[in-house]
Amino acid sequence: MRIRHKPLREQVIVITGASSGIGLATARAAARRGARVVLAARNAAALDDIVHDIREQGGEACAVVTDVSRREDIEALAAEAVSAYGGFDTWVNNASLSIFGRLEEVSDADHRRLFDVNFWGIVYGSTVALQHLRRSGGALVNLGSVASDLAFPIQGMYSASKHAIKGFTDALRMELQEEGAPVSVTLIKPASIDTPFPEHARNYMTRAPKLPPPVYDPADVAEAILYAAEHGPRDVYIGGGGKLMSSLRKRVPAVTDWMGAAVVSKTQKAGVAGRDRNGALYAAGRDGAVRGGSPHHVMRSVYTRASINPVLTGILLAGATAAAASLLGRPGRS
Fold first, then answer.
1. pLDDT tens readout for residues 227-254
2. Which tens digit of pLDDT belongs to each residue from 97-156?
3. Is the pLDDT of residue 334 over 50?
4. Mind spelling out the 3-state secondary structure of the chain?
5. How far apart are CA 245 and CA 146, in angstroms?
6. Where are the domains of the chain?
7. pLDDT by residue (tens digit) across 189-224?
8. Candidates 85, 158, 216, 303; catalytic one
9. Does the annotation mark 158 as catalytic?
10. CATH number, domain 8-300
């Protein structure tokens, strides 16, 4: 069956983890482009403020307090979207958390809680969303990570959860394709993004965690998610740096092992003093902000913008071809 995606201005989009970071950036961008948005997170006060702001700016939004680790909460979220807007066209499984600490130091309870949120939250979100999308058609968008392709020390179980999300998402896509379901399934793979992600993480280290560079703008992820809502690509990488690391992992895994041990670990141990804290692992954290105040330079990803913009891709390729032809045409070059 052919998959047809509506223009964004005609869509209803459900977004989990919408009270901060990538989810909040996506909700605001979708509302600006005319979509009606259903926001889900655990922080009721933050959600109310966000919905108020969106409506003040002429958008349409509603919110549902949701713990994605509970299937009943996800079912209530879907039911509210149907009640408020008659259904939904795109479902974005974005809610995610991390733990900074060596694998043997982190408690079993914390590891299980992380998987309940990151992995089972996506399983519940996907299977509940498909009960509707199978009938009406649309897009399912899951947030993986560059950590879906390679592992990071100090965030070992987070990496494991993102590997699991990739396996689940790929298998689900195949099953839907086999049955002819009119639903696209996209896996988004961000590199380091400037969001409150480190602040919301459970921290076992003696230093406050921070993400390694290069660090990209949350707007790049929001654009990729909304592109997936309208076009349904299979995978989208956020950040050329992340795409490069993934490619290196496939071709020279020993090099990325060395880089992880020597570079990433050092990055995590640098910075101002931190403390052993839960972050938002068990309860909602301080929400309402898109950006996280990364100490590194935050950039926009030319790679990602080109990959979701065929016109820009053509311009870049034409420019590269012209530059190469110019170099080859110079005297003394072959």
1. 999 999 999 999 988 888 878 778 888 8
2. 999 999 999 999 999 999 999 999 999 999 999 999 999 999 999 999 999 999 999 999
3. no
4. CCCCCCCHHHCEEEEECCCCHHHHHHHHHHHHCCCEEEEEECCHHHHHHHHHHHHHCCCEEEEEECCCCCHHHHHHHHHHHHHHHCCCCEEEECCCCCEECCCCCCCHHHHHHHHHHHHHHHHHHHHHHHHHHHHHCEEEEEECCHHHCCCCCCCHHHHHHHHHHHHHHHHHHHHHHHHCCCEEEEEEEECEECCCHHHHCEECCCECCCCCCCEECHHHHHHHHHHHHHHCCCEEEECHHHHHHHHHHHHCHHHHHHHHHHHHHHHHHCCCECCCECCCCCCCCCCCCCCCCCCCCEECCHHHHHHCCHHHHHHHHHHHHHHHHHHHHCCCCC
5. 8
6. 8-300
7. 999 999 999 999 999 998 888 898 999 999 999 999
8. 158
9. yes
10. 3.40.50.720
Q: Which amino acid is at 72?
A: E
Helix axes 218-231, 21-32, angle to 10 degrees: 60
Report the DSSP beta bridge partners of residue 12: 36
92's tokens: 């974005």
Provide the greatest CA pair distance for the chain.
71
Bond before 198 cis per omega within 30 degrees:
no
